Amino acid sequence: MGARKKISAEKRKEALKTMYFAKLQNVPTSPRKMRLVADMIRGMEVNRALGVLKFSSKEASARVEKLLRSAIANWEQKNERKAEDGELFVTKIYVDGGAMLKRMRPAPQGRGYRIRKRSNHVTLFVDSKNTNDNQN
């Protein structure tokens, strides 16, 4: 690794130490379906977001709810205190495409149709409101 790359990699690692996030990788649902759930909670206060996810009928919402609880626990672990009501917000959440399983389905006249079984990676960031104000 070159010196310039190494320096930028170390800066990125240091920046991640001050952020509070959780990752969920290789979720066997399509990224498009997961983004619908992610868009529902982006920018919300965490207790409200947990309520929205709990009563959502989408299958992906259960996975995102578990991920959000993990991100809250990570925040509490790094700050060594419990999160109070109205303190934490979902600052960023994004869904990236993951590995794709490619399969073939028999079709008429000796053909084969391609089936792409998609997966995704979800990254969720939480932070308190007052640290967001200090950064801006």
Automatic annotation (TrEMBL):
The globular domain of the protein is located near the polypeptide exit tunnel on the outside of the subunit, while an extended beta-hairpin is found that lines the wall of the exit tunnel in the center of the 70S ribosome. This protein binds specifically to 23S rRNA; its binding is stimulated by other ribosomal proteins, e.g., L4, L17, and L20. It is important during the early stages of 50S assembly. It makes multiple contacts with different domains of the 23S rRNA in the assembled 50S subunit and ribosome. Keywords: Ribonucleoprotein, Ribosomal protein, RNA-binding, rRNA-binding. The keyword RNA-binding applies. GO terms for biological process: translation. This is Large ribosomal subunit protein uL22. Part of the 50S ribosomal subunit. CDD domains: Ribosomal_L22 (cd00336).
